[in-house]
Specification:
206 residues; alpha/beta; 4-stranded mixed beta sheet; 42% helix; 6% strand; globular; binds zinc ion
């Protein structure tokens, strides 16, 4: 199985047959000038949202210098927000409701494949949140974020992106200093900060 992350959400899993269909027909062309631009699967190359998706991935890649010069293949995910391969630099994204947070999460999986980020979905979420403020445009899937910071369908309330990003950066720094429970620390910190903001501002305002 080339897939490592079939459960970006708790929704229907992509069947193996469907996954293979998406996996096999990558366009076998050299990357365009610059070398680091994504290669599109045939499915994505025909997709009406391809320009938006490629633009978003390109922008996200600006914050992943480790992947510079590496052609990353992109396909379409169905039934999940996205998934990634640990065997080759390839990610699959669901065009519907695509956010930078999902793209960042899948790109961090590629860093995990290179041994540059600790393995695991929660660690993947944390490192994707720490990467850049712009990439924190939705709540992560695997980490606990207080309801006071989120809106409908995983959106974030004003100010929440900054709070989450800054705390994730601090958690990653702590991990670098040997803190083993850095993910739990992040969740506790975000919860405490959200509570203190809520207490100051009154209910429902963050
Ligand atoms: Zn994942």
């Amino acid at each position: 199985m080339p897939y490592t992350d079939p459960m970006r959400t708790q929704e229907t899993l992509v069947s193996e047959a469907e996954g293979l269909q998406l996996f096999l027909p990558f366009v076998a062309e050299p990357p365009p000038v610059g070398g680091e631009r994504p290669l599109l699967s045939r499915v994505l190359a025909r997709h009406p949202s391809r320009r938006r998706i490629v633009r978003m991935v390109d922008l996200a890649l600006d914050y992943f210098p480790e992947l510079e010069g590496i052609p990353i293949r992109i396909g379409i995910a169905r039934g999940a927000q996205g998934y990634a391969s640990l065997d080759e630099p390839a990610i699959w994204l669901n065009p519907r409701g695509l956010c930078y947070q999902t793209i960042a999460h899948e790109l961090v999986h590629l860093l995990q494949a290179r041994g540059e980020v600790p393995l695991g979905e929660r660690s993947c979420d944390l490192y994707s949140l720490a990467r850049a403020l712009l990439l924190v445009d939705a709540a992560p899937v695997y980490l606990e974020i207080p309801a006071a910071l989120t809106g409908p369908r995983g959106t974030l309330r004003p100010g929440a992106s900054r709070l989450i990003h800054d705390t994730a950066r601090e958690a990653v720094a702590r991990r670098g200093r040997g803190e083993r429970r850095y993910i739990r620390w992040f969740e506790n910190q975000v919860a405490a900060k959200a509570e203190s903001i809520r207490a100051r501002a009154g209910p429902g305002i963050v």
